[in-house]
Specification:
globular; 86 residues; mainly alpha; 3 helices; 48% helix
């Protein structure tokens, strides 16, 4: 599936931000070096795909009343990247 140009730009920008955040985290940097020392390379891949057929209301950032449709797995992943959801 071909992404619209504006979405491709946003995904690319997010990828750059995630790589920068991971590179600045001492633990992530140490793990990366350990993996590379074993002879492996790492690659961060982001995929943007439609979120299903049910419509969702787009919520503005900072909207405390928003009922965000995140699963427990989503929340754990975001927490691991130190993304707050409050």
């Amino acid at each position: 599936m071909e992404l619209p140009e504006h979405l491709h730009h946003l995904v690319s920008e997010l990828g750059d931000s995630l790589v920068k955040a991971l590179a600045e985290d001492d633990h992530c940097r140490d793990l990366t070096f350990q993996i590379q020392a074993q002879g492996y390379g790492l690659m961060l891949i982001l995929e943007a795909s439609p979120m299903g057929t049910r419509s969702r209301e787009i919520v503005a950032p900072g909207d405390e009343d928003a009922d965000l449709p995140f699963s427990e797995d989503d929340k754990r992943l975001m927490k691991s990247f130190k993304i707050r959801m409050d």
